[in-house]
Amino acid sequence: AQSVTQLGSHVSVSEGALVLLRCNYSSSVPPYLFWYVQYPNQGLQLLLKYTSAATLVKGINGFEAEFKKSETSFHLTKPSAHMSDAAEYFCAVRARGGNEKLTFGTGTRLTIIP
Amino acid sequence: GAGVSQSPRYKVTKRGQDVALRCDPISGHVSLYWYRQALGQGPEFLTYFNYEAQQDKSGLPNDRFSAERPEGSISTLTIQRTEQRDSAMYRCASSLVLAGTDTQYFGPGTRLTVL
Question: What per-residue confidence (pLDDT) applies to A2?
């Protein structure tokens, strides 16, 4: 069974600073990996996904994530935080072949300090 | 184009009542998923459909929960004899094709409160 662990339920960064949100997965076979963002009173929106092409994945709003098999990680980064990045971020994993469900982490709430 | 829509957006009910939550996926999307999200947690899988066929219902907590998608489009999640522990955000998602790499598009959710 797959699982993901998001370290840090709350992260605060200053506007213009680097954003780093951590995600580690547990799976016997490298899975597909996703980052979703949830703004208040809205549905989850896909930021980016890793599907075994390039290990460095670029997403929307300037975010990117790097798949590192040796570290079983898929951390999300953005070089310069913007006030509009304040939201909750979820890492999710999906098995290759078979069941289509997503397994989500518990989320990280990102606060941007002006 | 329209995204995934869910209705109602908010539902308050009394313990013991039945509720039906509706999901209208993006037109043409083959797969439809239901998740439940408790406060402070990530979404948790309940069940999913390919076309009208329910493929996996392993996440349904007990037999009070059921779901259907009779014509391969709109889906209804029904909770019978609701309990306070059923209070949560219920989220629906759809995807275009039957592929693990495909994106699941989420609706805004239905916030269920059981008094």
Answer: 82
Q: What angle do CA B4, B10, B11 make, to 5 degrees?
A: 120
Residue by residue, DSSP assigns A20-74 as EE--EEE-SS--EEEEEEE-TTS-EEEEEEE-SS-SEEE-GGG-EEEEEGGGTEE
Tokens for A22, please give them: 């951590």
A79 CA to chain B: closest CA distance, Å?
25
- What is the distance in angstroms between the Cα of B93 and the nearest Cα belonging to chain A? 9
Any CB–CB contact under 8 A between A89 and chain B?
A: no
How does the average pLDDT of chain B come out, rounded? 94
Nearest CB to B106; choose among A9, A43, A99: A43
